[in-house]
């Protein structure tokens, strides 16, 4: 017997956290009855459905997407806005994003139906690095760069040290291009860190996730991960 939210995650319905929300909001039925208790356990012979659609075991899918700005990093949106799943409509499996990028942030996003791998990739314990390039208002001082490299506290929340490079500056426009590499994955992490040192983000892009890059892709493009890439992701998260 396993917890219902874990079974839903492994079946590719949603991440475990999203699955918990689906349970408590009454979207899940077990053997025909609505279940809202997070402690519910199910076995292999239990029939589980999401909004009256039975879940089924699917072949694993691993997709790398170049997310455009103006697209929601979720499987569905109550406001009817375009989601990252809409960009991979030709994928037969029910996939969902690994973590998220803000609505106005572009760049590399993974989608999968492998709940166990997704959970590990987003857990700070495994320290999978993500590299971002930001255009900021203002030019970071040497002191600001040191603060970010040491780690910074914003509104009482501590952020781990970042690897940081100042790629270019425009003194006339008073803007700069900064590259940051992080592994925590907290909400709005890059924006909060840069704003805290007086350099609010104007534009943000995630260029790398672990060893994966956007090479060969244009905005809105997607590709399946190669078997060796999936194997390396599993190795990075202790699943090899």
From TrEMBL:
Residues 2-64 form the RNA-binding S4 domain. GO terms for cellular component: cytosol. Its EC number is 5.4.99.-. Keywords: Isomerase, RNA-binding. CDD domains: PseudoU_synth_RsuA_like (cd02870), S4 (cd00165). Gene3D superfamilies: Alpha-L RNA-binding motif, Pseudouridine synthase I, catalytic domain, N-terminal subdomain, RNA-binding S4 domain. InterPro entries: PsdUridine_s_RsuA/RluB/E/F_cat (IPR042092), PsdUridine_synth_cat_dom_sf (IPR020103), PsdUridine_synth_RsuA/RluA (IPR006145), PsdUridine_synth_RsuA/RluB/E/F (IPR000748), PsdUridine_synth_RsuA/RluB_CS (IPR018496), RsuA_PseudoU_synthase (IPR050343), S4_RNA-bd (IPR002942), S4_RNA-bd_sf (IPR036986). GO terms for molecular function: RNA binding; rRNA pseudouridine synthase activity. One of its GO terms (biological process) is enzyme-directed rRNA pseudouridine synthesis. Belongs to the pseudouridine synthase RsuA family. This is Pseudouridine synthase. It comes from Levilactobacillus spicheri DSM 15429.
């Amino acid at each position: 017997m396993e917890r219902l939210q874990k079974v839903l995650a492994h079946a590719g319905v949603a991440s475990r956290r999203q699955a918990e929300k689906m349970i408590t909001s009454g979207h899940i039925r077990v053997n025909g009855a609505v279940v809202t208790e997070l402690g519910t356990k199910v076995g292999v012979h239990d029939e589980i459905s999401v909004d009256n659609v039975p879940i089924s075991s699917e072949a694993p899918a691993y997709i790398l997407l170049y997310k455009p700005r103006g697209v929601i990093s979720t499987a569905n949106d109550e406001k009817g806005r375009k989601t990252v799943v809409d960009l991979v409509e030709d994928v037969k499996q029910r996939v969902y994003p690994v973590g998220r990028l803000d609505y106005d942030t572009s760049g590399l996003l993974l989608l999968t139906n492998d709940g166990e791998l997704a959970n590990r990739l987003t857990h700070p314990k495994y320290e999978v690095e993500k590299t971002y390039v930001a255009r900021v208002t203002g030019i970071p001082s040497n002191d600001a760069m040191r603060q970010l490299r040491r780690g910074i506290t914003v509104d009482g929340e501590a952020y781990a040290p970042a690897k940081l490079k100042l790629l270019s500056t425009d003194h006339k426009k008073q803007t700069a291009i900064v590259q940051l590499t992080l592994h925590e994955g907290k909400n709005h992490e890059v924006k909060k860190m840069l704003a805290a040192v007086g350099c609010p983000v104007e534009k943000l892009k995630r260029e790398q996730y672990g060893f994966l890059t956007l090479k060969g892709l244009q905005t809105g493009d997607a590709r399946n991960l190669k078997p060796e890439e999936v194997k390396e992701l599993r190795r990075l998260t202790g699943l090899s």
